Amino acid sequence: MTITKDSVMALREKTGAGLIDCKRALAESNGDMDEAVSILRKKGVATAAKKSGRSASEGIIAQSISADRSQGILVEVNCETDFVAKNDDFVAFSNEIAGELLSNPSIDLEEKRTEQVAKIGENIQISRSETLSPTASGLVESYVHTGAKVAVLLSIGSESADVSVNDDVVTMAKDICMHIAATSPVCVTREDVPSELVQKEKEIALAQAEGKPPQAIEKIVTGKLEKYYSGVCLLEQPFVKNPDQSIQQYVDEVAKLAGTPLKVEKFLRFQVGEKA
User: Fold this and answer.
1) What is the CA radius of gyration of the chain?
2) What is the SS3 assignment for 102?
3) CA–CA distance from 214 to each of 7, 198, 208, 223 (Å)?
4) H or E element in which residue 93 lies
5) What are the residues whose beta carbons fall under 8 Å from the beta carbon of 35, sequence distance 6 or more?
6) Per residue in 253-276, pLDDT tens?
């Protein structure tokens, strides 16, 4: 039978589902409107579409790392309530999504998402994801903070491929991930700090030093910038587990134990609800 535009629009109005889904459901039901509604509901499409406009500001950060630690991913999956964010099914779904995106970044997960919406009863969105790998040899490590509202992914570069199975290096990488979760640094080194941020700090320091002798102003500005760098640059931050040691000193210490140079290359820090 011929599926009319009016019938497709009527089904869309009833269910909130997409035009293509409505047309397929009507074709499957031979034009029976009630049966088409039932088909869409069984597939979870109608439920998902109706809920798609609802706010999904809660959620968790899921992670996945390849078996050889050569690649990792962080994924933010959102829902409507913190209650659902703690639901075992939602957590399992989020972790599954992270694993699938790590294996195949171009995979279409819309069907799984709509199925989960129908199962849980809330709007669910896969809002962002990002992968990380060492430049050459090395490893990737992650840390998901309790409640999964904050997660960190870190890449450590090395001249040796064996560091991925070195307990000291893996422990160090995990420690640094936990440190990043707690301190939220801006970047790895001072060379990575955006120039506009440095300029802003200089302007603030100069304003605070106004009225001081010219020879003192330079020292004041330099001192304040050094303090700024030690606060926002990961390698210059005091290690939270041992404040007498910087992160760079910790890395150097473990590199000696491992017998190979180690380099903190990059990190990702995701927090639920923040702008990407």
Assistant:
1) 25
2) helix
3) 80, 21, 13, 15
4) helix 88-103
5) 29
6) 999 999 999 999 999 999 998 865
